[in-house]
Amino acid sequence: MSLDTAIETKHIIKKYNDFVAVNGVDLKVIKGECFGLLGPNGAGKSSLMKMMYCHSVITEGELFVLGLNAKKNFREIKSKIGVVPQDNLLDSDFNAIDNLRLFAKYQQIDDYTAAETIRSLLKLLKLEDFANSEIETLSGGTQRRLAIARALINSPEIIFLDEPTTGLDPQSRLWLWNFMKQVKEMNGTIFLTTHYIEEAEELCDRVAIMDRGKILCVDQPRILIKQHIGDEIIEFFSNPVDLNYYLNRLKEFNYEYQVYNNMVLVFLKSGQDSKKIFDIIKSEKVTVRKPSLNDVFLKLAGYNLRDE
């Protein structure tokens, strides 16, 4: 494991009885980057992340976090990382500041250092007015900021965020985006899972798309868009009678496409002429647009709904 590597997995597997949730994943996260893990429900994202922050036992394979073997050095790893779970997991028996004090004791931080750190974090995360508030009185956005403060109390080298903006209003989501950018500017390493593709495109240096326990692709968002989609997308709707005709014509001219119900998405690569498509298509609903990471996700993971 090189010195610039924050996390490395080697053919890691996670099984729950006979069910394989993570199936032979090889992944490397570089120090100082924001790395996003995307995938539909049931893809194995949470199972993979929980092994990384030593909350779940590895079934097979090797996992190293900050150069430490997760099978042998899980206590030391936990002292060097911060975790923001999707459900916050704040203790409702304590108020906001006591939640932070309790976690500082768990991390074996001395009282003076803990008090100074908590004071700084309350200011940084705009929680000073809520320090003595009971947890159930806090809004979802405020609870999420408190969970982030808790994760930062030990000055972690890696922060794990599981669906960090789920359920937040637009203002809270934007604030959190800006905060994560600040963390990255300070050379902090962020590993996040998210269902919001635009969030990954906005924040992440690199992303991995995961489905059915396997990693389908890993790279910078713009490179994945270029590689899997191309320069433009032409969308059009077809009635069922004409659909096969259009698809055969697209195949004839070697256009790559994807069909969802009666909608056809044609992926234009560099050098391909869009005029030929307009000569083929006779549809009143035609859209030409730039591709996004969302298109890559849907192309690789599909459009079908998944259960949790």
Name of the top-level CATH class of the largest domain? Alpha Beta
Could you please say which CATH topology of the largest domain applies here?
A: Rossmann fold
Report the span from N to C terminus: 34 Å
The level of helicity is 25-40%
Form type: elongated
Instruction: Assess the beta-strand content as a share of residues.
Output: 25-35%
Explain what this protein looks like in three dimensions.
It is a single chain. The protein is elongated and about 75 Å long. The protein has helices spanning 45-52, 74-80, 96-106, 111-124, 140-152, 170-185, 197-203, 221-228, 240-252, 274-280, 293-301; strands at 5-16, 19-30, 34-38, 60-65, 68-69, 81-84, 158-162, 189-193, 206-211, 214-219, 232-237, 256-260, 263-268, 286-289. The chain is an alpha/beta fold and 308 residues long. 37% of the residues lie in helices and 27% in strands. Helix 3 (96-106) crosses helix 4 and helix 8 (221-228) crosses helix 11.
Summarize it:
The protein is an alpha/beta fold and about 300 residues long. The chain has eleven helices and 14 strands.
Keywords:
single chain, 308 residues, alpha/beta, Rossmann fold, Alpha-Beta Plaits, six-stranded mixed sheet, four-stranded antiparallel sheet, 11 helices, 14 strands
Spell out the blueprint of helices and strands:
Elements (H helix, E strand, L loop, with lengths): L4 E12 L2 E12 L3 E5 L6 H8 L7 E6 L2 E2 L4 H7 E4 L11 H11 L4 H14 L15 H13 L5 E5 L7 H16 L3 E5 L3 H7 L2 E6 L2 E6 L1 H8 L3 E6 L2 H13 L3 E5 L2 E6 L5 H7 L5 E4 L3 H9 L7
Parallel strand pairs: 3-8, 3-9, 6-7, 7-8
Antiparallel strand pairs: 1-2, 1-4, 4-5, 9-10, 11-13, 11-14, 12-13
Helix pairs in contact: 3-4, 8-11
